[in-house]
TrEMBL record:
<dbReference type="InterPro" id="IPR027417">
    <property type="entry name" value="P-loop_NTPase"/>
</dbReference>
<dbReference type="GO" id="GO:0006576">
    <property type="term" value="P:biogenic amine metabolic process"/>
</dbReference>
<dbReference type="Pfam" id="PF10662">
    <property type="entry name" value="PduV-EutP"/>
</dbReference>
<comment type="similarity">
    <text>Belongs to the EutP/PduV family.</text>
</comment>
<keyword id="KW-0547">Nucleotide-binding</keyword>
<dbReference type="GO" id="GO:0005524">
    <property type="term" value="F:ATP binding"/>
</dbReference>
<protein>
    <submittedName>
        <fullName>Ethanolamine utilization protein, EutP</fullName>
    </submittedName>
</protein>
<dbReference type="InterPro" id="IPR012381">
    <property type="entry name" value="EutP_PduV"/>
</dbReference>
Length: 158
């Protein structure tokens, strides 16, 4: 049986892989995810999975190996990516991540941050963490939020 781990879901270019590289202390380099990848303690999904509704079944199937769903968007993304109530697809905790906060000088009152955070909350994220994978800003906060959510999941699964 495969170990349960956090699954990252987000559009192409939002920084899923870069954030995982920071969390796992790997060399920081761009890498387009072509298929589901298992990084140490994390699951990285291709952006196409969320950008094309016909691929939602791939997200649901991959989630069988997850204990937490991390939905992530770049602060500069103007699109509506995650539908309202997206979390109802999953029987596990969901965390929202606003990445690329360096683009708005880490301002959580910036209109772009507020718009993206609201989209993540509407999708079902109970907690929102603002990070910059590029700079490594707030990565320890995200790591702690994931651990806390995974701990809640393992307690409710018993």
């Amino acid at each position: 049986m495969m170990k349960k781990r956090p699954m990252f879901v987000g559009p192409i270019g939002c920084g899923k892989t870069s954030t995982i590289q920071r969390l796992t202390h790997q060399e920081f380099k761009y890498n387009k995810t072509q298929s589901v990848e298992f990084f140490q303690d994390y699951i990285d999904t291709p952006g196409e999975y969320i950008e094309h509704r016909r691929m939602y079944t791939n997200i649901a199937t991959t989630a069988m190996d997850a204990n937490v769903v991390v939905i992530i968007l770049g602060v500069n993304d103007q699109r509506l990516i995650f539908p309202q109530g997206f979390s109802t697809m999953f029987a596990m905790p969901m965390i929202g991540v606003v990445n690329k906060m360096d683009l708005v000088n880490y301002d959580v009152q910036h209109p772009d941050y507020l718009r993206v955070a609201a989209q993540l909350k509407a999708a079902g994220a109970k907690e929102i963490v603002a990070v910059s994978a590029k700079d490594g800003e707030n990565i320890p906060v995200l790591e702690e939020a994931i651990k806390k959510a995974a701990s809640k999941e393992s307690n409710t699964a018993k």
